[in-house]
Amino acid sequence: MTRTTIIFDDEDHTAPTSLPGVEARADVLHVVDAVRSALEKLGHAVAVQPVGADFLGALGAVREDAPDAVFNLCESLGGDARGEGVVVGVLEQMGMAVTGSPALALGLALHKDQAKAILRGCGIPTPDWTFLPEDSPELASPPGYPVIVKPAREDGSIGIGFGSVASDDEGLRQAVQRVWRMHQPALVERFVDGREFCVSFLGNEPRIVLPLREIAFGPSFADRPRIISYLAKWDPSTSEFHDTSSGACDLPPEVQSRMVDYARRTFAVVGCRDYGRVDIRLDADGTPWCIDINPNCDLHPDAGYARAAQAAGIDYPSLIATLLENALDRARARARAPHRPTDRVEPRRSAGSIAPAH
Fold first, then answer.
1. Which residues are bridge partners to 91 per DSSP?
2. Could you tell me where in the chain the CATH 3.40.50 domains are found?
3. Positions of CATH 3.30.470.20 in the chain
4. Which residues contact 155 (CB under 8 A, 6 or more apart)?
5. How far are the Cα atoms of 36, 120, 306 from residue 124, in angstroms, in the given order?
6. What is the overall mean pLDDT for the chain?
7. Do strands 147-151 and 186-190 pair parallel, antiparallel, or not at all (unpaired)?
8. Contact at 8 Å (CB) between 8 and 32?
9. pLDDT over 50 (residue 326)
10. Which end of the chain is more exposed for a tag (fewer CB within 10 A), N or C?
11. What is the dihedral of CA 220, 158, 85, 125, to 10 degrees?
12. Given this structure, which CATH class describes domain 126-190?
């Protein structure tokens, strides 16, 4: 039996309803209950620690409790998604074993323009884009219409709606202004109007590819952009929520293999680990394009990732147990590694100068 502490972002579910993404962040409470139930059924001792404004105090309490591992369900701090990586970074500096991706991978995936630049540099196809900081003096030329305008520092489809896809300058201006009103930079990306697929990964050595899933868009998307909007993902009172689903992928094996190759390379170069999902669009010419990276993706039992695992014969408790075991494996490896503080070599310095970098 292990002692596990689940952490989650406490303030988000009580945030004002005017805050973009409040429904998505409230969903974490359901995931906390599901993960706790799964771990307890497997015989683990489970504690739950909310992380709020005094996040250092909360993480200090976790360290004092000295669990064998921390199951990380913290997606933001005070509604700011940039806090996700901060929490993991502090825990790792404390020497804690944490599930999911490290701080650097979470930060890169959240900064969409930087992630896309890394993918482009590694030869991984990603649609052309323009980055517009908040309140730029003028709109830069788009990478060809149509485009999709996204908040550059969000996930979970926050800030994404049918109006996010623009086919002319006026539509682009309105979409960018909506993002800027969220106090976010805007990512203007060439819109790939094609089939959308999810490539999910589990584990590290070896890294398992779960069965690919395709997003199906129903009647609500007739004459509308086929995108997973915020309402389609989070609001069950809308028709687009009920008309968006994921199912088995029926592509030829060679096309699936190419998508998996791009997704695997994406997962690796961003530095993701344990679990996550890469979203890919297939254009009319059959070219796959990486459109999003989702480390620490939604672990709700009814979400797409858990369904992909189920399609591979992995039930929900087994999935959660695997994620915990990944973190415990890292703790064991760290315990076996020799600690040799004298290995650090201090740079040579001369009076009044700085040692050159080699």
1. none
2. 3-99
3. 195-316
4. 75, 81, 109, 110, 294
5. 37, 6, 26
6. 87
7. antiparallel
8. yes
9. yes
10. C
11. 60
12. alpha beta
Helix H or strand E encompassing 104: helix 103-110
Strand-pairing partners, residue 354, are: none
DSSP string, 187-232: EEEE---SEEEEEEEE-SSS-EEPPPEEEEE-GGGTTS-----HHH
Identify whether the C-beta of residue 280 lies closer than 8 Å to the C-beta of residue 290. yes
**Number of other CB atoms surrounding residue 121 within 10 Å:** 9
Vertex 252 angle, CA 212 and 255, to 5° = 70
Mapped onto helix, strand or coil, the DSSP state of residue 61 is helix
Dihedral sign for Cα atoms in the order 326, 81, 178, 16: positive
Tens-digit pLDDT profile for residues 107-143: 999 999 999 999 999 999 999 999 999 877 777 778 8
- CATH 3.30.1490.20 location in the chain: 126-190
Neighbour-count burial of 138, counting CB atoms closer than 10 A to its CB (0-12 exposed, 13-18 middle, 19+ buried): exposed
Q: Which two tokens stand for residue 244?
A: 């968006």
Q: Which of 143, 141, 126, 144 is nearest to 173 (CA)?
A: 141
Per residue in 71-108, pLDDT tens? 999 887 766 777 677 889 889 888 999 999 999 999 99
Fold of 3-99: Rossmann fold (3.40.50)
Query: What count of other Cβ atoms lies within 10 Å of the Cβ of residue 183?
Result: 12
Most distant pair of Cα atoms in the chain: their distance? 73
Domain 195-316 CATH superfamily: ATP-grasp fold, B domain (3.30.470.20)
Q: Look up residue 118 and give its two tokens.
A: 């890394």
**Direct distance between the N- and C-terminal alpha carbons of the chain, in angstroms, rounded to an integer:** 48
Mark residue 296 as left, alpha or beta (left: phi above 0; alpha: psi -120 to 50; beta: remaining): left
Q: Is the peptide bond before 146 cis (omega within 30 degrees of 0)?
A: yes
Q: How far apart are CA 52 and CA 50, in angstroms?
A: 6
3-state SS class at 183 = coil
pTM recorded for the entire structure: 0.86
Buried b (16+ CB within 10 A) or exposed e, 206-221: eeebbbbbbbebeebb
